[in-house]
């Protein structure tokens, strides 16, 4: 039983039913798909949930006018702010800041070099103020090692790091309603992809265990790599140079380059997702586009048009004019995160 | 029933058994997997076939020392010279030459510009002699249109064009033993990818119907693209600039970028595949690497160390030292192509 299945069952109060019946339930869920009355228990009944379920019902109804073959049921999801939280800073930036601290003993020159000097003095805001500061921090922490070494670094960090406001592991800062949505779409024959501005190799460090999304269905920003022999074995070494930025126009371009098929459903939360939603929904045939609107300062964070992180401005306007679904976290989501494990 | 399934059944003399029993047979094949005595009927019994089947049996034997989880059963295939033929020129070059002729009326300036002038006079060899000639021809024929327009152009060409020596559609110039191998691996839980120097959008024009490989499992060389609004609708326009060359060191890099997981089996035929095979097989765990050696001038073409197309030189040496399987087409393949349809 995968982690996401456990979460799913947990959310439905089903963790006590035992492994066998849980497995059977998931089996019948997969088979029955849209027929299940509540595959989205963390969603309140309302327009957003109804729109999702109506879309899925229509594109999966064999012989119906909107039927889409399973091979063409491509759904793309942004990650930061859509599948997991992104405040007070993108989690990958928090990872990079932790790495700077961990690597500092090997870089005595950082004491006198910005943005590292400010960071090491604890002045995150000052450090990130410089024009190229974020890029310098990412380069310093995301290159120089092999892809396999980087994978280990990411997994070790995820296993021990805690979110600065909630104290929870980052992998528990994922939106339970969106986990249910991913599972619901897959149970209905969809292939779910992440298409995020985040680093592809960073996201692969948790996408399979947390979202049930295998590495080949994770698309993101990437640095250049070099193939070389290291002690007689082939290795891929991460270089300090940007290869591709998977944001804004980059998202539909990456979708075409890597998936090669236009999605029929796309999910995002910021203006960085706008072009992905346009590419998905401004086309022939039944389509579904959704933006998560962060409106809940109590259970999560509230931000939109004025935020530097996850700004949602043009997207809100375009959602209105195009009829895209806008999730109001406060009213649409019965729960945001799973309760902490005791 | 997909085309590849029909071909597979045809090769086993099963086209007369009717649709229902054929479907049932395929169903039980998928279920039984490695237990089927001859899933590779176009392969002669010999060391190559035995090596393939032994590898698959080992990595799929639950509880065995070499067992690999289905999610990690990644197999990558070169295309030109591995899945379909590549003589007398790469088929994509032949496509480009046909397109130059078709586009010439819109380009009166080509009459006085190389390499187009030579081409239009029928001097292919002269045209391709210039240092940048091939790149110029590819740019002129692979850019300026949207990705969807290009898809239509490729599919229209494949539907009507004929191979210059055999007179057959290019999609019939695929190696029947390799189609069986793809199906055999998939029946055993493998996910099969193309990783080829060919253009990714060209290959997607036939990979799904001919190989049963969906667009998101096709990796290849690519040009840059631009996202723009065309008559109010979002479009991706192909630009005359190279984005990525998926050859040699590019192959493991593309595998890591796009698949994000090291293959456990890789199949190629030229020195352009060498690094992909090194990346796959020079690693821990049970691995399988195979090179197709073109040795059969009667049924196909014979070429290796001295060929400008599909040169296999270093690869032959490394296969020997590393113990990779080298397919001798002449002796290993019972049939190369399916007989022509009457």
What does this structure look like?
Two copies of one chain form a homodimer. Chain A is of the alpha/beta class and 342 residues long. The first copy, chain A, is built from 15 helices and eight strands. Chain A has helices spanning 3-11, 19-32, 47-60, 91-103, 116-120, 124-129, 133-142, 147-160, 176-187, 200-203, 207-211, 250-259, 274-281, 314-322, 329-332; strands at residues 74-77, 191-199, 218-230, 233-244, 265-268, 288-295, 302-303, 325-328. In chain A, strands 1, 2, 3, 4, 5, 6, 7 and 8 form an eight-stranded mixed beta sheet that branches. In chain A, a hairpin with a 2-residue loop joins strand 3 and strand 4 (233-244). In chain A, helix 1 (3-11) crosses helix 9 (176-187), helix 4 crosses helix 7 (133-142) and helix 12 crosses helix 13. Chain A starts with a helix and ends in a 10-residue tail after the last helix. The model of chain A is unreliable at 11-35 (pLDDT under 50). Chain A binds chain B through residues 71, 74, 147, 191, 200-201, 204, 208, 214-218, 222, 225-227, 233-234, 236, 243, 249, 252-253, 256-261, 275, 278-279, 282-283, and chain B through 71, 74, 147, 191, 200-201, 204, 208, 214-218, 222, 225-227, 233-234, 236, 243, 249, 252-253, 256-261, 275, 278-279, 282-283.
């Amino acid at each position: 039983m995968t982690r996401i299945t456990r979460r799913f069952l947990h959310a439905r109060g089903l963790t006590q039913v035992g492994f066998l019946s849980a497995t059977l339930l998931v089996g019948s869920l997969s088979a029955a798909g849209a027929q299940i009355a509540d595959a989205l228990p963390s969603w309140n009944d309302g327009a957003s949930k109804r729109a999702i379920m109506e879309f899925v019902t229509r594109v999966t109804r064999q012989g119906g006018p909107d039927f889409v073959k399973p091979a063409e049921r491509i759904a793309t999801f942004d990650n930061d702010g859509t599948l997991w939280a992104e405040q007070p800073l993108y989690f990958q930036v928090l990872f990079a800041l932790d790495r700077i601290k961990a690597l500092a003993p090997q870089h005595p020159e950082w004491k006198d070099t910005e943005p590292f000097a400010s960071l090491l003095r604890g002045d995150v805001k000052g450090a990130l103020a410089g024009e190229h500061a974020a890029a310098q921090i990412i380069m310093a922490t995301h290159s120089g090692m092999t892809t396999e070494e980087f994978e280990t670094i990411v997994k070790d960090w995820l296993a021990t790091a805690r979110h600065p406001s909630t104290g929870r592991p980052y992998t528990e800062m994922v939106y339970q309603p969106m986990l249910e949505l991913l599972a619901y779409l897959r149970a209905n024959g969809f292939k779910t992809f992440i298409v995020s501005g985040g680093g592809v190799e960073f996201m692969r460090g948790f996408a399979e265990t947390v979202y049930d999304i295998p590495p080949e269905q994770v698309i993101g920003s990437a640095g250049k790599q070099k193939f070389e022999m290291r002690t007689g074995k082939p290795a891929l070494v991460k270089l300090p140079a940007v290869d591709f930025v998977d944001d804004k126009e980059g998202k539909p371009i990456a979708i075409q380059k890597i998936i090669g098929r236009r999605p029929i459903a796309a999910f995002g939360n910021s203006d960085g997702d706008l072009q992905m939603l346009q590419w998905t929904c401004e086309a022939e045939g039944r389509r579904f586009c959704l933006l998560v609107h962060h409106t809940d300062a109590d259970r999560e964070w509230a931000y939109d048009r004025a935020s530097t992180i996850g700004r949602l401005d043009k997207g809100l306007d375009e959602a209105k004019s195009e009829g895209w679904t806008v999730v109001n976290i406060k009213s649409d989501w019965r729960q945001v995160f799973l309760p902490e494990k005791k």
